Amino acid sequence: MPDKKPHEFEEVHAAALEYFGGNELAADIWTKKYALRDNGGKYHELTPADMHRRLAREFARIEGKYPNPMSEQDIFALFKDFKHVVPQGSPMFGVGNPHQIVSQSNCFAIATVDSYGGICRADERIAQISKRRGGVGIDVSPIRPKGLPTHNAAHTTDGVIVFMRRFSNTSKEVAQHGRRGALMISCSVHHPEVLSFVRSKLELAAITGANISLRLTDEFMRAVKTGKDYELRWPVDAEKPSMRSRISAKEVWDEIVKHAFLKAEPGVLFWDSITRNSPADCYSDLGFATVTTNPCSELPLAEGSSCILVVLNLCSYVIDPFTREARFDFELFARHVGMAMRITDDLVDIEIESVERIIAKVEADPEPPDVKANELSLWRMVRDKCVSGRRTGLGITALGDAVAMLGHKYGDDASVGFVEQVYAALRDNAYRQSVVLAKERGKFPLFDAKREKGHPFLSRLPKDVLEDMARHGRRNIACLTTAPAGTVSNLTWCSDGNYGTTSGFEPVFLASYVRKKKMVASDKGDADSVGSDGERYRHFEVRHPGLGLFCKVTGKGMDESPYAGAQAGEIDHSRRVRMQAAATAFVDHAISSTVNLPKDVAIETVAQIYMDAWELGCKGITVYREGSREGILVSKGSQNGNCDNCDDAADKFKALVKQGGRPGRVIMSSAPKRPEVLECDIVRTTVKGRGKDKS
To answer: Using CA atoms, how far apart are residues 493 and 115, in angstroms rounded to an integer?
Structure first.
């Protein structure tokens, strides 16, 4: 049970500082974000060990409902010291929390309807999810383009941009313990207002409460590659659109590349790759058609679906790191993947309970039934999607450190081979366990083997898994992802007495850097800096713990380490893409990741990255050119990361196009990540908000 005697902040922070071996950043994050506290601000957990006992107790309670349960002690051993298995932010905050009625999902997807009532409903749902600590993904493609007739007093519609501003403002207005909510707005490249959408973030004051991503189809990408026109239409997915026109694909492509180069947005989602490889889309006519992604873009979701996120820490499976005998314990990893999959499925049960508490709370509220009807409809839809699909998001973190600990450089041939091995083990053992859970607990209610026959992703599973799944079904409609895990990775075990790893799929950002952490209203003292959005920040100087371990083990310095030449901005972009492409083949959802580029990179490189990503079968891509946005991780000596040469870059771009030059290409990711945006409950290594490979 939590401590009976409540604690003050100072006492908890001091205990957490000792727990994390003097790591002030980790202590600050855990105390302010995850330690159990009541509505009066009193703390009921003194250290993360108390939190892990709370979590283990709740997961063991769910396990006890089913055959072959894991014990509370076994679960605690996985969580202890953030070493092996780490639930993401929302579960750490909400599981077993008697003081808050919140969802255990990090983010949700909602849909828009082309009517003012439908848009208002979506806007309210952003607010209702945000107040429960969730982020939101929403697609504006269904909204008719500007100037089309309406059957109301306006006579014509205002188009998508005005409603994007509305959604953005709502996300900013709903506070979440001193931070803003997370919002992703996506749109189809076939929408007639595509160019307005692409340009919507150029003025930072316009839409500052959301990330934006563009859904690119194979039809569009082929037109770009062949230099042809493609079709704008509305409704974008209708068999017989009411509005059609044609435009040069290169014109739109050039705008996408320019804005990504200048401002790191929009990210791009390769929509056909996403839906083609999505097991959930086998049930699109039953409510599981993918409509958009979560704010970090690692999870393409159906309306009402959400992120149930748990990660395995790859550092903990490296034996004798930074030595010639270094090796990865695949046997232990495979066993833990199975256990983590059980825990993630347990989390679906806990989420169903949490959503039912939300529903009961709303039903008991004193507002008239018509006032709370939309909120009740929302949470009933979320509950129904959890029950009927049992979607999970099991993934990994600390890939960058694990690669280095094995003596490889991120992006080299050995690291690509390692990624393939790790992700194959993750996929095979997670799906194998989901089949075991179907035998023990029952398959997800919609399962139909005939619908899934020949599915591009599922057909690549091992033969024994496919045969068992055909007989027994599986427990979860889709299982895997790789989330950014930025904030969580600051807490994650690196080695004995050291905490803080690379986040998610990312390489090390910098071996030494300053991390900016947003201050909340209750923070005392002066800010170290104030952002362009008026937010106040404290600065933490960070020396990457993995590098410290390398120096301790070998007696050598940074220049002789596997991190040298393999920091985020140093890795060759083609190798960076190749790494993510290798992993994507094994993931049913997506991978959140960002390709970091130096400030002086050629704009052609951005275009090359995007094209390569599509050709390699990636599900999306985001690039972040140094200085194009204000980031939360900056090199020492950098004041704010703002770009001083954007006008010059734009002029160069125009000159390139005028001369008939063609922007280059880049590769994959699946979740765009933008710096000026919100904390997705996870902070990315480079920019705040989201990452992306499908984020």
So the answer is: 49
